[in-house]
Amino acid sequence: MPSSSADLPKPGTTPAPTRPALAEIVELLSSKWTMRIIWELRGAPLTFRALQQACGGVSPTVLNRRLKRLGEEGLVVRDPAGGYTLTPLAAELLQIYQPLAAWAQRWQAAKGAR
Amino acid sequence: MPSSSADLPKPGTTPAPTRPALAEIVELLSSKWTMRIIWELRGAPLTFRALQQACGGVSPTVLNRRLKRLGEEGLVVRDPAGGYTLTPLAAELLQIYQPLAAWAQRWQAAKGAR
DNA sequence: CATTGCCGCTACGTTTTGTGTAGCACTGAG
DNA sequence: CTCAGTGCTACACAAAACGTAGCGGCAATG
Questions:
Q1: pTM of structure
Q2: Which residue ranges in chain B fall short of pLDDT 50?
Q3: Looking at residue B113, what is its pLDDT?
Q4: How many domains does one find in chain B?
Q5: Could you tell me what percentage of chain B is helix, strand and coil, using 3-state DSSP and rounding each to the nearest 5?
Q6: Confidence of residue A3 (pLDDT cuts 50, 70, 90)
Q7: Which residue is closest, via its CA, to the C1' of C6?
Q8: Which domain holds residue A87?
Q9: Are residues B92 and A103, on separate chains, in Cβ contact within 8 Å?
Q10: A27 occurs within a structural domain
């Protein structure tokens, strides 16, 4: 038996404890550019404009909105030396995305095989 | 020394191999409701309407659009017994989100402590 | 055979979100 | 002073999502 979806919460009953936090982060990551911004800030702080370029010219309107939100959520802070940088918590989040990258490879391979 | 953001690709150089697949899945997951739909489909298939309700009354327009896309991407298929269900690949993706759920808890705790 | 009920959708007008370009106020260097 | 770089903000436009209404199909029921 394939062990997929084992010991995950039951679908019908929306299990209160783990959901709200997960729901909130999913909502946060579901707004455009959010994950990309975190991704581009890996390793070194970037200035507003540098970050904008790194994100392929995202509009400053949205960039600013995202940075505000990420700041409120404790994921991004102003760097003392100028620019923006990730908090340790955000860096952890980035680590989580490594398995996702591996999965993405398999996914793309599966797409090619269709 | 904190090991955050260790052995991740360098920021400036956008490392070609792993990026495109990751970029595509991030884009896919960055459209509203996508992850929620996958989440609600965990465990058991749901009908269009049931899924719509499970997602808190998302508009059928968007739901249909997402289901089409998820179908094309090989993550969701029609269930022989009616309704929609996840492919094994999508179930794996769901597994990846378990660390994310754990992270979300720590994140919320950190928010409370601010 | 008509009614009822559920199925997967589609149409359409409104609202929300993101885009793209321009430019402002501030600061430090020359 | 000028000049370049900083972090933004304004505004008009386009795209995406919302919410409600309802259509055609199909199976069970009276």
A1: 0.84
A2: 1-18
A3: 79
A4: 1
A5: 55, 5, 40
A6: very low
A7: B49
A8: 22-113
A9: yes
A10: yes
Flag whether B12 is in a domain.
no
Q: Answer yes or no: do A91 and B33 touch at CB < 8 A.
A: no
Which of A15, A2, A109 has the alpha carbon at shortest distance from B86? Answer: A2
CB < 8 Å from B in window 62-101 of A:
73-74, 86, 88-89, 91-101
List the structure tokens of B81.
């017994």
User: Is A10 in CB contact (< 8 Å) with chain B?
Assistant: yes
Tokens for B27?
A: 């884009």
Q: Which residues pair with B95 in a beta bridge?
A: none
Q: Please list every residue in chain A whose beta carbon sits closer than 8 Å to the beta carbon of residue B20.
A: 108
- Inter-helix orientation angle A88-112/B88-112, to 10°: 170
Residue B9 lies in a domain: no
Chain A hits for B101, Cβ within 8 Å: 18, 21-22
Which of these, B25, B56, B62, lies nearest to A98 by C-alpha position? B25
Measured in Å, how far apart are chain B's first and last C-alpha atoms?
23
Instruction: Look at B42 and A11 and tell me if their CB atoms are within 8 Å.
Output: yes
Asked, for residue B63, whether it belongs to a domain, the answer is yes
Whichever domain contains B30, its CATH number is 1.10.10.10
pLDDT of residue B19: 59
Distance from CA of B60 to the nearest CA of A (A): 19
Q: How many whole angstroms separate alpha carbon A9 and alpha carbon A13?
A: 8
User: What is the per-residue pLDDT across A30-59, written as a single tens digit (0 to 9) for each?
Assistant: 999 999 999 999 989 999 999 999 999 999
Evaluate if the CB of A50 falls below 7 Å from strand D. Answer: yes
Strand C: which nucleotides have any atom within 7 A of a protein Cβ? 6-13, 17-23
